[in-house]
Amino acid sequence: MEKKNAVLSLYPTTKLLMILLFAISVFIIPNYLFGYAIFFVCLLIAAIGSVTKEFANLTIKGLFSLSVLIFVLQSFFYPGTHVLWEWSFLAITQEGVDFALGLTSKIIAVGSSLILFFRITPVKDFVYSLEVLGLSPKATYVVLSTLTIIPEMKKSSQIIMDAQKTRGVETEGSLMVRLKALLPMITPLVLSSVASTEERAMALEARGFTVNKRKTSIYSIEKTGRDSFIRVMLLVILILLIVWRVAL
Amino acid sequence: MSYIEMKGISYKYPVGDGKVLKDVNLSLEKGKVYALIGANGSGKTTICNLIRGFIPHFFKGDLDGEMLIEGKDIREWEMGDLAQKMGYIFQNPFTQISGTKDTVFEEIAFGLENLRVEVPVIKERVTEIIKLFGLEPLQNKDPQQLSGGQRQRVSLASVMVMDPEILIIDEPTSQLDPQATEEVFKIINIMKQKGKTIILVEHKIELIAEYADWVILVEDGKVVMEGKTKDILSDIKTVNHGVMLPQYALLGYEMRKTGRLNEIPITESEAITVFNNWIVGKEE
Ligand SMILES: Nc1ncnc2c1ncn2[C@@H]1O[C@H](COP(=O)(O)OP(=O)(O)OP(=O)(O)O)[C@@H](O)[C@H]1O
Ligand SMILES: [Mg+2]
Q: How is this protein annotated for GO cellular component (chain A) (predicted)?
């Protein structure tokens, strides 16, 4: 991880505060254009953090398709009287479009802020900062290990799949074929996961995981002057937004 | 008072039928290397779980008899104290990586962090252990991406760095090539020299002949033979209980058929002396 990068090197909670400000701001300034603008702000920050590709990938594939769906549904079904377009029982109303714009702009602003946060913050750093704030290591362990166990489960499901393929079970083709192949896989996957969870718990115990509530850590990240500066800036922006809202 | 003692232990796991341990009596002294041998499913791992207190603290089930560590019943020991006293290396190397660390160095440091050791001391001790184990080329790798053998060596290092008094090691070499196996046993020997008490499960009988002080032979949940390594591994009765004798001992028995052989050797160096004497004796 590039530590000198202006965005990436910020302390995790600074990044979190920034993202929180983005998310809250769309509720302070209700204009939908403002909400959509937040996406571009996030994009800019992603670019500075040189994670543009990952960020764009997730927002476009996930967030935008979801927003388009919500937009269409809301503009058709939101009750209203100013009909813009009509076909048999379907009608788009002005109220529906307004509501859909407002809603999707908020979803996009909050969604892209969250995606940005996890693109620019390694989970390990985030968890470390939470532990510093006093979150119990047991809770943070659950978060961290789940994130690392998912790829392991993927790997073992691939192994089981391959084993079944060699035994002649069809695993490719239509949806029905795939579903059929999935069923016999679930049992060994779940069973082996449960068994290894038990062993993992013992292995953790063996290494003193439950001995102390607080632990030392050889990994550490520090806040810098830039963090304080950004935090002050965020506060100023928040105040300006509120002033703007009141003046509007 | 024995250091580690089992008196009339019987145990049945919560699931599964029948007793897995049947009236086991053992008494272990401080500073010795004990080898637990026996066929698959005979109960070796179960005995390890019991000594470490995973039975009954982790596995419930029916436990009868007394399991004492320094004269105190295992049920009365705090799990935290047991964790500091005994290091446990599990049979399966794939489940003992903590799963939260990015590098082998941090992985090895995990136990010491849990024990609240100061950061500079941790770094020093981890660096030392990495050197002892020759893990330098791996220290910046992701522990999740190691091979079975590499994981096994990292797990061993992760436990030894915590410097426990007692080491319970369940088949440390199942995934290792001959050279790495040899190296692991050299480390076990270093631990012995440091005065650690070591309980070792191992199928490679030649290594046991070389390194263990005392052998405990388990069959079907019972201790069927125990004694000095030399006595057990040169006793032909041992093969009736599902374990092989060392090659040198088998050869010794073959040679005995053709003539006088005072002693059955179990290690390479013993074999050289015994067979040399035998040749000299023939020529006379
Ligand atoms: N968690 C468990 N629950 C129920 N039964 C178990 C459990 N673990 C082991 N057993 C049973 O207890 C018996 C002894 O098992 P144990 O694992 O102690 O054998 P082992 O001597 O270590 O064998 P191996 O050489 O294969 O490691 C076996 O019959 C096994 O099926
Ligand atoms: Mg075993």
A: plasma membrane
